[in-house]
Amino acid sequence: MHRAGRLEKGMDEEAARYTSSLEFDREILEAVIYINMAHVRLLERVGVLSEQEAREAVALLGKLLESPPMLDRHEFEDIHMVVEDWLSRRSPRVGSMLALGKSRNDAVVAAIKLRLKQRVAQLHESIDELCATLLKQAEREAETIFPVYTHLQRAAPATFGFILHGYATRLLKLYPHLRLVYELCDESPLGSAAVAGTSVPLDREYAAQLLGFGKISDNALEATASRDFIIESISLTLLVALILSSLAEELVLYSSEEFSLLELPDELSATSSIMPQKKNPVVAEITRTKVWEVLGLLSTALGIAARQPSGYSLDLQQITPKLWKALDETVSALRLTTKMIENLSINTARSAEACKPPTGIVEVANHLTLNYGVPFRKAHNLAGRLSRLISEGKLTPETFQQTLQEAGVSVGITLEDALQLMEPRRVIHGYKTRGSANPQYVKTAVKQAFQELERQREWFLERRRKMENALATLREAE
Ligand code: ARG
Known about the structure:
By secondary structure, this protein is mainly alpha-helical. Helices cover 65% and strands 4% of the residues.
């Protein structure tokens, strides 16, 4: 109906379908309805609608919220046109005023931001759950001897709890980014209209307040056509996916028969249709791919955003579904990773075995240096020789003493002393630095991380409440 003035012909059906965003507008349906409620209230303030007209229109839109329309009529370019058409049929005068001072360009950004705030809060919840699970298990397994690797070679005795706390620490470092994304979305573009603002004296602060936005945008051109906040959001999901991918990779490796350090839960594994003995870590495998999938979405979004002059072009519409997809992928990967961590079991005999000498042999060198003043390079050389003997099964009291002599280390240490120094439990409890795998430090760090999680929860809860209260007030205003 808005075409008829300028264009003589209706749109080619295939072209209409081709250019419509209806297919993926379902995600912002509710948000668009709320934005129209707010706009009706703004028009009431301007004096274009009467108080009664506004009230009735808000009530009608409330009905639309409760029973959302089918989004299958592709003669509509997008959800904004569907809502305007729906209201126009029920309240022709209000419907005819709905686009006064409001463009789809500012409305769509407002809707994406409103919805994205909810989705970021949901993303926070899934990250929070995984973090809490990692920390809970880290505490439980803080004494469970487990090797850590560098270059995928056994490097040092540590604990499984230490590894889990490491992943929780990585996730916790995303919180400032998570909050940044929320704040970028907490800005109302309404009143920007299509590109340069409007001569309709809309109260922008009032609009922001009605929808629970914390502030209003500073420039109409930027507000309507920048999708930087979407790039920032997908980048965040990419970082989450990166962490989940390396964790998944680690689970696949450690659960393989060759490592045999972990057993993944049956309910998250599959078997082979031809090789009956197999237990395939399929959930971890799919999780490992998420980083590529999200990277694909990010590069598509970036590519589209980069080829844009400053004002709105329809290209921008194609970015939005990449955002929702990135969030979907990341949230499901988070949930399934949480299940894997909750339900995996550790082959403790095997993990302790992997920490036996020579894994902790640097402790012999450290001991000789710290207690006898042996130069560390010399002590390191001796330990290297000893580790070769251990690997070859040739370490005896005799070969031990002989190696000491060969390495030019003349201190009174017996093979038994050396073996004790390398005993895994003694090694991990002997770590002195904060941040080490010493169970005592890990337990303290886990406690602090739990407190940090709690603080972050409060931050999100407060924002969530603010938004939900605003929307409830808008919806229910008599
Ligand atoms: N469907 C569009 C989007 O998602 C809404 C804005 C369309 N604006 C326009 N002038 N055609 O970005």
